[in-house]
Design a protein that fits this description.
With about 220 residues, chain A is mainly α. In chain A, about 80% of the residues lie in helices and about 0% in strands. The relative contact order of chain A is 0.15. About 5% of the residues of chain A have low confidence. Chain B folds into 2 domains: about 250 residues, 3-Layer(aba) Sandwich (Rossmann fold), CATH 3.40.50.300; about 80 residues, Roll (CBS-domain), CATH 3.10.580. Chain B is about 35% helix and about 25% strand. Chain B contains 14 helices and 16 strands. Classes of the chains: A mainly alpha (about 220), B alpha/beta (about 350), C mainly alpha (about 220).
Chain lengths: ~220, ~350, ~220
């Protein structure tokens, strides 16, 4: 407690940095995942799902989902460290963390976005087509809103996991609440580490709650 | 000028040598069929007979392989699929409502797609809710909050909102329970008497086909049209063994649906006593309330309502504990009793009339 | 030489594979830590998941706990435990067990809970005891989701065990941390490749095991 009181501005500043690194990759990763997943799912134009699948579409879906899963096996620390090689940035550039975390969010979100699009009732899509929706408008007006509930579940997991992963960036010197861990270890200050852990968890719980509220509003049609 | 010509022509939709193949499998085989304007035409048949495929080819949810489908005299391939679809209503088995939209917005979907303002589309949607017998207080609810029957009514209202002369209905009532289904069927007939749209209705239930259809098209497995005619024609003279077996063992009974019972004598209730001494009809406030025998009261059978069919008359006799049917007026007041021998004689007379034989 | 050639050179250098600090030793350490962590986590998570999934009691608690566990930063736990427990094996194992519990618990719980209630009801109606229902009906039918949780946990643990090198332990993370200290990129790339390969192989083995255990009718 004492440590926190004495370092309040510092912790606040690190929290803000942590927040930024938590939110931006989640937004970017989600925006990237949605088109990938939608293309991977593939549906015939009349809205009947490809369940039963042609060999080609099953392969496409499998390739996308498995590639995403493969990305997830790369240790976060390694991804942070190797980013400069790919991006040509300096090793301490925050961009490394943003891009690396975005990749993780994509790895997690593609799967649930695929599930989400597959969860949309073919009957509903079919009736939309039968009423005269063209494919693009049908995607925005019907398919995407109906995919939200399943996507949201994945998004909440991705968000929370991402918040906890942000702290690993501290090992390569990117400032966040994780800095309290590396600093606390070096200076032998358990209190500093505890502040970091509690701060991270509180941040995760608040953002998760917020996302849940947004989700409840977006899916208010589900409650009978 | 052309439009009026088209609407004057007796047929709304014509199938001309239409075939649909999936690979080598023939789903619909050389279909030739003219669907009369302003009537209910029912496609009926066992599963896999191509009835739904035929329906879906009309609005190009399924594209036909060869032949031609004319809608109001023009090939349905003349306009883009989405425009064609917006021009006709479509009701699906599971209603297919948009779960994320309120009831009123669901009904307003097609007018909105056609560019009607949100306000007037909603006004129209509220009127349509009343038309199909839905309480407008449900307008702001979501589909998940409706019963199956209510959802189907919304589905019908939504199809009507396209304001087209053509309504496609794909087994719309098959997923609701029998009581609700009866309500919906009656409602559809009432609506049709007001609106007189061209309705194509798919079902696998011959009873539903006979009840609703002005015309019935019986499909056989393999996508062959086995018979097209009025329900009475199909029950009276099945074109082949397939149709005969499909319309079923009860077709004799079903056919009585088309025969009036005006010939059947209604015996007045002269006293508390019925023609059968030991049975006594219990009457409360002028309405039948069961039969009394040996001091016990036994619930009565089905009632023959004034103006009913021969089938109703026969059923009232067969279901009555006393073997005597009870006839009531439209307010449920007892008119008199029906004797089985009179009913049987009426069926005989009807049969002779049907085949033009003198009794 | 580009980075790939340099990495290749690192893999093929004398003594890269065998001996102290060689690849074989690091892989063995990495697998050893991972297996131990998964085992301890399973001993804790599986019984809880089975009970909650079967009885339906405590669902909210489980959902809340798995959510909170996911939010716990592993690096934070690792450093904190290292300060408290010293630089031995206990600290990283404890930190990573906590990481692995969330996916395991979620997989077991949701797997059992997702089994069709009608099937369970039918089993009960035929006179199965609750433990028979759990063992002979729910568990076999829940296997796909349970294995989903196990594979998820294994992937996370194998990827994250690299972090233990940060507190001077072994495993493939050694190459990463030591490489980072001297900006030796080929060594770090090699570490990434090795960890990814290891994760894929373990995942494939678990997939085979899952296939062998899943009842034929539900494959």
């Amino acid at each position: 407690m004492n440590w926190l009181m004495n370092n309040l501005p510092y912790v606040g500043q690190l929290s803000a940095l942590h927040l930024l690194q938590s939110i931006i990759p989640v937004i970017a990763g989600t925006l990237i995942s949605i088109p990938i997943a939608r293309l991977a799912v593939g549906r015939r134009r009349d809205g009947r799902s490809t369940a039963g699948h042609t060999a080609g579409s099953a392969f496409k879906r499998g390739a996308v989902v498995n590639t995403a899963a493969l990305l997830y096996t790369i240790p976060s620390l390694a991804l942070f460290v190797l980013m400069p090689l790919v991006l040509g940035t300096s090793i301490t550039s925050p961009l490394n963390v943003y891009v690396a975390l975005t990749i993780y969010v994509v790895a997690m979100m593609v799967r649930s976005a695929v599930d989400a699009f597959e969860s949309v009732s073919p009957v509903t899509l079919e009736s939309a087509t039968a009423m005269g929706y063209k494919p693009v408008r049908r995607f925005w007006a019907v398919e995407l809103p109906l995919a939200v509930p399943v996507m949201l579940a994945g998004l909440r997991v991705a968000l929370v996991s991402n918040i906890s992963m942000v702290s690993v960036g501290a090992v390569i010197g990117i400032q966040s609440l994780g800095t309290l861990f590396t600093d606390g270890l070096r200076r032998n200050l358990p209190a500093e580490i505890i502040v970091g852990i509690v701060g991270t968890v509180v941040l995760a719980l608040i953002l998760d709650r917020l996302l849940a509220l947004i989700g409840a509003w977006l899916t208010r049609w589900r409650k009978a | 000028m052309k439009d009026t010509d088209v609407l004057d022509s007796p047929n709304a939709i014509e199938f001309k040598s239409v075939t649909k193949k999936y690979g080598d499998v023939v789903a619909v085989d050389n279909l030739n069929l003219s669907i009369p304007r302003g009537k209910i035409t029912v496609f009926v048949g066992p599963s896999g007979c191509g009835k739904t495929t035929s329906l879906r080819m009309i609005n190009r949810m399924v594209e036909h392989t060869s032949g031609e489908i004319l809608v109001n005299g023009e090939p349905n391939t003349a306009q883009e699929p989405h425009k064609l679809r917006r021009s006709m209503g479509y009701v699906l088995q599971q209603a297919g409502l948009m779960p994320h939209r309120t009831i009123v917005d669901n009904i307003a979907t097609v007018p909105r797609l056609n560019g009607t303002s949100a306000k007037s589309a909603r006004t129209e949607a509220l009127q349509l809710m009343e038309t199909v017998g839905l309480d407008t207080s449900l307008a702001k609810r979501y589909p998940a909050q409706l019963s199956g029957g209510q959802a189907q009514r919304v589905g019908v209202a939504r199809a009507l909102a396209s304001n087209s002369s053509i309504l496609l209905m794909d087994e719309p009532f098959s997923a609701v329970d029998p009581v609700v289904r009866q309500d919906l069927q009656k409602e559809l007939l009432r609506l049709q008497s007001e609106l007189q749209r061209t309705i194509i209705f798919v079902t696998h239930d011959i009873d539903e086909a006979v009840l609703l259809g002005d015309y019935v098209a019986v499909f056989a497995v393999g996508g062959r049209l086995a018979q097209f005619g009025t329900p009475e024609e199909i029950l009276r003279e099945p074109a082949d063994d397939f149709v005969a077996s499909f319309v079923g063992r009860d077709r004799g009974m079903r056919r009585l649906t088309f025969a009036g019972a005006s010939d059947v004598k209604i015996h007045p209730l002269t006293s508390q006593h019925t023609p059968w001494q030991q049975w006594e009809l219990k009457v409360e406030d002028g309405k039948p309330a069961g039969w009394i025998i040996d001091g016990r009261t036994i619930p009565g059978g089905s009632l023959f309502v004034e103006g009913g069919t021969l089938r109703d008359a026969l059923d009232s006799v067969l279901s009555s504990p006393s073997g005597v049917g009870v006839a009531v007026d439209r307010n449920g007041k007892v008119l008199g009793l029906l004797k089985s021998e009179d009913v049987l004689a009426a069926t005989e007379a009807e049969r002779h009339r049907r085949y033009g034989v003198n009794a | 030489m580009n980075i790939f050639d340099k990495t290749w050179a690192w893999f093929t250098a004398d003594g890269a594979w065998t001996g102290a600090g060689g690849i074989f030793q690091r892989v063995a350490e990495h697998l050893g830590y991972s297996a131990l962590i998964l085992l301890i986590a399973a001993v804790i998570a599986v019984p809880i998941g089975l009970m909650v999934g079967h009885t339906g009691r405590g669902e909210n608690v489980v959902v809340a706990i798995t959510g909170a566990l996911r939010a716990l930063p592993t690096l934070g736990l690792l450093t904190l435990f290292a300060l408290w427990l010293g630089l031995g094996l206990v600290a990283p194992i404890a930190a990573l067990v906590i990481l692995a519990i969330a996916p395991l618990l979620a997989g077991v719980y949701s797997g059992i809970a997702a089994v069709d209630k009608v099937t369970v009801d039918a089993a009960r109606a035929q006179g199965m005891t609750e433990s028979q229902i759990l063992r002979k009906v729910e568990l076999p039918l829940a296997l796909p989701l349970i294995f989903g949780g196990i594979r998820n946990a294994a992937l996370q643990v194998i990827a994250t065990v690299t972090v233990v090198a940060y507190i001077n332990l072994g495993g493939l993370g050694r190459y990463l941390i030591d490489g980072l200290a001297v900006r030796d990129y080929p060594r770090m790339v090699a570490a990434v490749v090795l960890v990814a390969l290891l994760a894929l192989i373990v995942d494939a083995l678990l997939a085979l095991l899952q296939r062998a255990l899943t009842p034929r009718g539900t494959r």
